[in-house]
Amino acid sequence: MERSQSQRHGGEQSWWGSAPQYQYMPFEHCTSYGLPSENGGLQHRPRKDMGPRHNAHPTQIYGHQKEQYSYKAQDGGMPKKMGSSSTMDSLDEDHYSKCQDCVHRLGRVLRRKLGEDWIFLVLLGLLMALVSWCMDYVSAKSLQAYKWTYAQMKPSLPLQYLAWVTFPLILILFSALFCQLISPQAVGSGIPEMKTILRGVVLKEYLTLKAFVAKVVALTAGLGSGIPVGKEGPFVHIASICAAVLSKFMSMFSGVYETVPGQLDLLVPACAVGVGCYFAAPDGGVLFSIEVTSTYFAVRNYWRGFFAATFSAFVFRVLAVWNKDA
Asked: What's the alpha-carbon Rg for the chain, to the nearest Å?
């Protein structure tokens, strides 16, 4: 009898006791919480407010509740952030404007730290080297045309004499008339005017783009005519004009070049660049800017003039490889 009762409970007697360690209990003999029931059936306590979802499987109840919560979130039942779309757009615009202002300030500081003057001097040296090379190239081609015209008139001696006299005379007259009509301030060497400007005297239209065009064209025509015209004085004036025009262009980025002392400080290296790109001698350009153009010389302009003149002379010599006559 005892043996049959123990088998009914799930097994034989063991060394550890008369009752088994584990016993199988079907789901039908348990309560809804998974506990064994005394009467062997599911204990349901139906409520009046419960619907047919109470008799469903727990996984079905979980899925149904999940769908219900998702519908509530879509309908606005879940808590959302306060504020309309217009306020959010205004906040985004304010944030974007603040970020843009921060980027502009950072760029301004970086330009000042990296040295805006050195960028200016590089541009000045490069521009003057290009101008000097172009003038030498055009004047060399003009001299070749002069010699070719004389050679073509070789059988007739009067025609050769006419070509030899007329060709340079036409270029000289063109140079004088062009300079007088476009900008009379471009007449002459330009060194006395630069001395006057560096001493603080304002001369009208001496550092303008019209004077630059007149000076370059007239000097090129004069050099192409074959007359002994030097480039040292005119190139000092041309480099000063380039520095003045570039300073106005660079003033878009910061207000350093808008002041009169800042512009005068940039004209001193320009004089060194004018001599350096003509003779390809940076040291001579710096000494010229010290001795000729200024009664007093700021120490900070030594390295500015030397750097700009060296860069200009280097670029001019590199470009002269393509022009053997320059």
From this structure: 47
- How many beta carbons lie within 10 A of that of residue 85, not counting itself? 7
Q: Are 247 and 120 in contact (CB under 8 A)?
A: yes
d(CA 66, CA 190): 89
CA distance 213 to 192: 20
187: Cβ contacts below 8 Å, ≥ 6 apart: 179, 180
Domain ranges of the chain: 116-322
Give, rounded to a whole angstrom, the gap between the first and last alpha carbons of the chain: 130
User: What b/e readout covers 147-168, taking b as 16+ CB neighbours within 10 angstroms?
Assistant: eebbeeeeeeeeebeebbeebb
Say how far apart CA 38 and CA 119 lie, in whole Å. 95
d(CA 200, CA 195): 9
CA distance 258 to 323: 38
- The class (CATH top level) of 116-322 is mainly alpha
Per the CB < 8 A criterion, the answer to whether 44 and 36 are in contact is no
Q: What is the DSSP letter of 176?
A: H
Other Cβ atoms less than 10 A from the Cβ of 36: the count is 10
Predicted structure pTM score: 0.62
What's the pLDDT tens digit per position in 305-315? 888 888 888 88
- Kindly report the backbone phi and psi dihedral angles of residue 36, in degrees, each rounded to the nearest multiple of 5, phi listed first: -60, 140
Tell me: the pLDDT tens digits for 185-233? Answer: 888 888 888 888 888 788 888 888 999 999 999 999 999 988 888 888 8
Q: Indicate the residue type of 234.
A: P
